[in-house]
Design brief:
mainly alpha; rod-shaped; Methane Monooxygenase Hydroxylase, Chain G, domain 1
């Protein structure tokens, strides 16, 4: 009798689930303290990698269940056992899909935040440019006014000294 591939594949999936759980707790703990720290970015990357590995392990588990569904008599499995295996795969698949969506939502939120910040930076840059132009214009007007005032004072001084 051949060895049931489900046992090894399920063991890999359970180990991956445990790892993802640990990484998710770490990610949430870091996120609670800071939304933009390098540690959070690193934790997000590790979580993403672990989810991808879990997805691969889950595909292997799904394939092993598919094989058993096709050739269950080869391993002497009852239909109930095969149904339980399929249910386990479906439940884990659903959880992984939910986690991936949440991660995508988080990345979408971060991307939106970064876009907003970039837009605000552009507006601030535009404001700075406008203020710089206004200050240059003011400086030119002050210089012109000072020059006229100096000429007027010189003319008055000359007219007072000649009187």
């Amino acid at each position: 009798m051949s060895r049931d591939p489900y046992v090894d594949a399920k063991s890999d999936v359970e180990a991956s689930i445990s790892n993802v759980g640990t990484l998710l707790e770490s990610y949430r703990r870091i996120q609670a303290t800071s939304n933009d720290s390098p540690s959070l970015i690193e934790a997000r990357g590790e979580l993403h990698s672990a989810l991808q590995l879990l997805e691969t392990d889950l595909e292997d588990l799904d394939e092993s269940v598919h094989v058993v569904e096709q050739h269950g008599d080869r391993w002497g499995l009852a239909h109930v056992e095969v149904a339980e295996r399929r249910e386990f795969v479906n439940n884990v698949s659903s959880e992984v899909a939910t986690l991936m969506r949440r991660q995508d939502d988080t990345l979408g939120f971060i991307s939106g935040t970064l876009s907003t910040l970039a837009s605000q930076a552009g507006l601030i840059g535009h404001e700075v440019t406008e203020h710089s132009e206004m200050l240059d214009d003011l400086s030119t007007r002050v210089d012109s006014t000072q020059s006229r005032l100096s000429r007027t004072l010189a003319a008055r001084g000359a007219s007072l000294s000649s009187s």
